[in-house]
Amino acid sequence: MNREIAVVAFAQSDHRRTSDESSEVEMLMPVLHEVLERTGLKTADIGFTCSGSSDYLAGRAFSFTLALDGVGAWPPISESHVEMDGAWALYEAWVKLRTGDADTALVYSYGKSSPGSVRDVLTRQLDPYYMAPLWPDSVALAALQAQALIDAGRTDEPALAAVGARSRADAGTNPHAQLRGSVPQGDYLVRPLRTGDCPPIGDGAAAVILAAGERARDLCERPAWIRGIDHRVEAHAIGVRDLTDSPSTRLAAERAGAFERPVDTAELHAPFSSQEVVLREALRLGDSVRVNPSGGALAANPVMAAGLIRIGEAAARIHRGESDRALAHATSGPCLQQNLVAVLEGDPR
Amino acid sequence: MSAVLKAPLTVEFPFTRSVGPVQSAFLTGLRERVILGVRTGDGRTLVPPVEYDPVTAEEIRDLVEVAPTGTVTTWAWNHAPRRGQPLDTPFAWVLVRLDGADTALLHALDAPGPDAVHTGMRVRVRWAGERSGAVTDIACFEPYDGDPAEPTGHSGEFADAVTGIVARARLDYTYSPGRATTGYLHALAGHRMVGERCPSCRKVYVPPRGACPTCGVATAEQVEVGPGGTVTTFCIVNIKAKNLDIEVPYVYAHIALDGADLALHGRIAGIPYDQVRMGLRVEPVWTEGGRYPDHYRPTGEPDAAYDTYKELL
Prior knowledge:
heterodimer; A: alpha/beta; Peroxisomal Thiolase, Chain A, domain 1; 2 domains; two-stranded antiparallel ribbon; 12 strands; globular; B: mainly beta; 5-stranded antiparallel sheet; 2 helices; about 5% helix; about 35% strand; elongated
């Protein structure tokens, strides 16, 4: 089936360093209620539900099944889960809607990094034979990529600091962001990356509602139509890759139609300042493109939700009439291992 | 409501993983201080080697020895090593392209400081004293200013080849259970059983999880239930669990506390295991200083009629 699918609503929590007082479902539930309220839909009206999360973050086994309590999943609903960022849950929901199996989908994701040490937790996603036994944490791997960019003459430490500063300044107008306004660049965490080059560690949740065709127009004044969406992965050994480039992002963007016409806005999921340098080039974003008006992942990076938030933020700008054609990007894994690109458009005004 | 509960939580898991023929040769080689790569169809040599070409997905099995010396292709200075990392003193993470290889291996470089490290510098392997056939058989790299070392000419065939690794993982958390469970646990410590009622369907959940799974809304109203309850169903446990000081056989049961709309589970004691039955009336027993019931015991009341608990099975 060739149906047009749109993002018709987006909601997110306030992203904070800790959320001790809430379980994952308690943190997620207000976001689910808010996104449903925006469309007037109830759980029973939703054709398909898909979520993204990882139990390793908070150390709570099967937390995604407990999170379903917040949806109201009994009697049984049509539901799926990915152990990935919610952007990939959105991809699965998009496919489901394209097949005609459902007309609406609820997509949500959440991450509580505060109970554990996310730098160490993320080592467990690495190659178990050659990498994981060395416990190379997420900042260390990003720092290897940043140094490769500096060696190639593509950036330097002041330029990286400027990426972080711009992101947090833009986040000044984003009440959900964790870091807003002026934040010290700080000391080296793993050289050449300083704390200001790295994302804040925190907890948060996000949710999106997708709808097909006329249903989307019923639910939203100006739907954010998904003109194309694709995701691609790099070789998993980082020593095989050119860390200064992201061919998977470029290919996903090409397949999503990103290069057919210029976009006015791009929400990039670059948890480290150096990764924005790679993505801007792979996506051929000129100076006229507004990059991460939300502040991006350097202002709030709830792991497993930060990618979905990029799609939500891009769509929300279209809903509000602040963008006509926006690109949203999500990443997963070390050094931009896997990348998803979506192109969203509003109807002509 | 009292303060948020927190407790340390350690998750440990030793995964036993098998290896394929190429990984086996590489890891066995490390044990024998030989470094093997694998040749791709287009003549590149991958180190560390993989079983399938990352570009073409072609199966690759052509092993080739490379030197234990190489060149740093990128690096990052780690002034604060973390648990499990190769060195416990400050070191550089490095990607090293070994002489004879076309790709780079991730490891640590032992160097006096960041000023002593640069991309393009020459390094060599420092072998671990005890080697078992793992990537940690390379203790780290160290600076090296000599010529490329000559490979030994090894065939890649070993006696007693490595067939697997044990990947040990440990993650430490400070766990907090959230609002609803915190309230439940605080009440338990005071020898009270407190559930929460759904504002929509009015069901009372014990233990409460903060949300009604039918309605998808927050439960908030606290409701004291029990302490008496009814065994709705049970099983007899005949296998002794590790680290659990309970004699088998014992009975583990679903118990519908009076006033609750969902059964919880607990151990039944104070009655021979083969006399436990559906409908048995029980109550919780706290041991001295216990923060939660240790087990449930019969109250001596007549059994509950099936109709009173059939919806809670």
